[in-house]
Amino acid sequence: MTENSVTLTGAVRVRVLRRSDAGRLADAYVRNREHLAPWEPLRSDEFFTVDGQAASIESKLGLFVAGSDVPWVLVEGARVVGVMNLSGIVRGPFLSGHLGYWVDKDMTGRGIGSAAVGFAVEAARTELGLHRLQAGTLPHNAASQRILKRAGFEEIGRAAAYLKIAGSWQDHILFQRILY
């Protein structure tokens, strides 16, 4: 799960985030800044720099080593075209984690999100031994809801004021997938 990349669809591959991705990730976030703004927390200007991404990568890799997160990047050649994370992984009787992802604005509608979610489901089941994955979407994010439903996630409810997105606390529709 850490060294090799796996083909998702066409020339797009998925692999675990690396320290050397800081520049490519900064480029991807700059390129997608407006596209992602309605779906993500407010970001400081520093977040969109190589140094900002280097700091973010260090944090994510620390959580990866601790076993609580798995940070992946979606790449086409040397270019980062998306991000996917399993976060908040809990062991013991829960064996659960949260799935989040985004795909480059110029790559949407090509099946990349669906392939990435399918990859994450399989990795969570076979490599991480998780029993359950959860994901949340904003109520108006129909594209992500379709992807999750196609991947076997079921809607389990609505969480009021769930996350602070685009500067305000916003409701989310919650989904889960039981893996075994």
Give a description of the structure.
With 180 residues, the protein is α+β, with helices and mostly antiparallel strands. It has five helices and eight strands, in the order ββαααβββαβαββ. Strands 1-2-3-4-5-6-8-7 form an eight-stranded mixed beta sheet, with helices on both faces. A hairpin with a 2-residue loop joins strand 1 and strand 2. Helix 1 crosses helix 3. The longest helix has 17 residues. The chain is globular and about 40 Å long. It starts with 5 loop residues before the first strand and ends with a strand. The model has no long low-confidence stretch (mean pLDDT 96).
**Poorly predicted runs of 5 or more residues:** none
Question: Class by helix and strand content?
Answer: alpha+beta
Identify the overall geometry: globular
Largest sheet features: 8 strands, mixed
Radius of gyration: 15 Å
Helicity range: 25-40%
Q: Compute the number of helices.
A: 5
**Total E-strand runs:** 8
The portion of residues forming beta strands comes to 35-45%
- Listing every helix as H and every strand as E from the N terminus to the C terminus, the arrangement reads EEHHHEEEHEHEE
- Amino-to-carboxy terminus distance: 20 Å
Mean pLDDT: 96
Strand order of the largest sheet: 1-2-3-4-5-6-8-7
